[in-house]
Design a protein that fits this description.
Shape: globular
Radius of gyration: 19 Å
Oligomer: single chain
Number of strands: 10
Length: about 350
């Protein structure tokens, strides 16, 4: 908060209890104090939710983790021209080498025209398809949002239902995420943290989520309590089968990333903790769980209003630093609370 953040909301859960706190204000106009129950756009923490819906496809024997998706996902081959067979596991673990859709978006300093149009899954694949997908990139870790746009289409195709409906029925409802959605926000809704980016020195309210509505890579709006319920549900074994959970926790060995979750050292266990990391220009969010699901911590920070990376490239480093500070703070907190596993 001393560095100019608009708001910070955090919740920590451990076997003996929970603690939550909000600092700052919901928005810079009304300056209403932020509350622990406030909702925020959680960016790529959405990927952890999407991974659950994909692993449920595997649990239901609709597809295998190492099955190719080229001929199953609509438009995959025609739009993206993959250099060979691409598997479910490669998409989940960011080892497909698929081009990053964000690299194909306009790089204008004025970001408003881009944000005013929804990036559908289909459009995302088309845009990514304008970039080269080289055979040498397949099999190594290369983080790309396009992986999860493709997975959303896979879920939708195999379930014969809209992706948003599947997420509601298979993740939000069963795990009790009552304040989480992929829908369009009403920026005037009560209990919402507002985000800001500056444009040529003018502060712009960027809370409207038109760009990410329904997006399986980054479209969720949630509370810190719901993010902790999500992680507890997954790692306590209530979201996917034991076999799928083991796969989810296992990195293919190319980076600290399993299937939809990052890895982080646990000061009380030989097993790693697992995380969802979310980074937008206006919000930074981290959700952490111990491997056994007994400890969770989640925090979102409304970033101090500053230019986009296109206007000032140095701000990307500032946002990355902030995300890392959140991550280390949450893990240090859990290290102090947790009981060493014997």
């Amino acid at each position: 908060m001393n560095e100019g953040a608009v708001a910070t909301v955090v919740q920590v859960r451990w076997p003996e209890g929970e603690w939550s706190k909000a600092y700052g204000v919901r928005d810079l106009e009304s300056r209403t104090p932020a509350q622990p129950t406030d909702r925020a756009e959680v960016a790529s923490v959405t990927k952890t939710m999407t991974a659950v819906t994909v692993l449920k496809l595997v649990d239901d024997h609709l597809i295998g983790l190492d099955d190719p998706v080229n001929d199953i996902i609509p438009g995959f081959t025609s739009a993206l021209k993959p250099p060979g067979p691409v598997t479910v596991r490669q998409l989940l673990s960011h080892t497909s080498g698929i081009p990053e859709v964000n690299d194909a978006l306009p790089k204008d300093v004025d970001f408003r025209p881009v944000l005013s149009q929804t990036l559908t899954m289909e459009r995302g694949l088309e845009l990514a398809g304008t970039l080269p997908w080289t055979p040498t990139s397949v099999g190594t870790f290369k983080y790309s949002n396009t992986n999860y746009l493709a997975l959303g289409l896979l879920v939708q195709t195999l379930r014969h239902k809209p992706f948003v409906q599947v997420m509601q029925e298979e993740v939000f409802d069963p795990l009790g995420l009552k304040h989480t959605s992929l829908d369009h926000l009403d920026p005037h809704e009560n209990g919402l943290l507002h985000g800001y980016v500056t444009l040529r020195g003018e502060r712009i309210d960027t809370t409207d989520n038109t760009f990410t509505v329904g997006n399986p890579a980054g479209g969720a709006v949630s509370t810190m309590e719901d993010l902790n319920l999500l992680m507890a549900g997954i790692f306590q074994g209530r979201a996917v089968s034991p076999t799928s959970l083991k796969e989810m926790k296992t990195s293919p060995g190319f980076g600290p990333y399993g299937l939809g979750v990052w890895e982080h050292a646990d000061g009380c266990s030989k097993e790693s903790r697992h995380e969802g990391l979310g980074s937008f220009d206006d919000y930074q969010t981290v959700a952490v769980s111990s491997a056994d699901g007994r400890y969770q911590a989640a925090m979102t920070v409304t970033v101090p209003p500053m230019p986009s990376g296109f206007e000032d490239p140095s701000t990307a480093d500032k946002r990355d630093l902030l995300n890392g500070q959140i991550e280390s703070t949450l893990n240090e907190t859990l290290d102090r609370l947790c009981t060493p596993v014997q």
